[in-house]
Amino acid sequence: MIEVDKQLFLEHLGGAEEAKKLGPEAKADAMEDFLASALKTIGVTEIGRYPNVAEVEKRIETRPFRQGAGFLFVNPAGNMNRLPPMPAKPTLADFFELRFGTGSTRNHCLQSAALAMKNGLREETILACLLHDTGAELMRTDHGWWGAALYEPYVSEKVAFAIRYHQTLRFYPDKDTGYEYPELYRYLFGEDYVPAPHVQAAYEMLKKHKWYMEPRLVTLNDLYSFNPNAKVTLEPFLDIIGRHFKQPKEGLGNDNSAAAHMWRSIARPDSPL
Ligand SMILES: [Fe+2]
Ligand SMILES: [Fe+2]
Fold first, then answer.
1. Per-residue pLDDT tens for 197-231?
2. What is the CA radius of gyration of the chain?
3. Distance separating alpha carbons of residues 12 and 182, to the nearest angstrom
4. Of the candidates 18, 118, 249, 251, which lies 20 to 30 Å from 155 by C-alpha distance?
5. 162, 156, 158: which is closest to 147 by C-alpha?
6. What ligand is nearest to the CA atom of residue 162?
7. How far is the CA of 254 from the centre of ligand 2 (A)?
8. How many angstroms separate the Cα of 126 from the Cα of each of 17, 23, 116, 182, 270?
9. Phi, psi (5° rounding) for residue 195?
């Protein structure tokens, strides 16, 4: 059985009081429902048994899209929605509100950052948690590297390092910090999956790196399952963004940084060229 965040599950049921009213069978049904909705947001349809790598590969030909495509570009449940227009000089907050919400990325990242804040972590770590999966709106495959490239011109080296390598450390348990291999990955990648060579190489580098804990802390606050309906806002993080994110005055995408085209692609994902 996949690991579930108890707090989020209770919220899904409408709070602890509501949960108490349910019998064991109703609770089991609700759990199944909760897991199915969490897995659906990342494109997994079956629960109850881990697939193996060969079965995961067989599914490729059952979908009209590739799993590596950014959440912004794919809707496994049906047609796309028309996106609201962006302001002329978009800020990070505008991207959060208008573009990062499509695949529950916004909620997942806000909930992870809220956990990091509750755990009393440093502001830069909270920021890394807040941004860690937003690159997956553009591209899911190698989303740590895409995310780091997207943010590198605007955040410190440490924050970019944490974003890039959280993807690697998600595959490697760490007893000392209490990080376990995510059950979710057995569904997503297959139970006999071996991380790609570049991920293995990154792990070998990270084990000896003085900043090992930067991405490790992101994985420790990365929620395994999340409630897509939880009400979370960017508001508690605006001060941290103000202090640690160099918002370009021209707007993200208009600033000629090395990542400006990536921001424009997120702003205009419907453009045919
Ligand atoms: Fe991630
Ligand atoms: Fe995550």
1. 999 999 999 999 999 999 999 999 997 555 666 77
2. 19
3. 21
4. 118
5. 162
6. 1
7. 28
8. 31, 38, 6, 21, 32
9. -55, 150
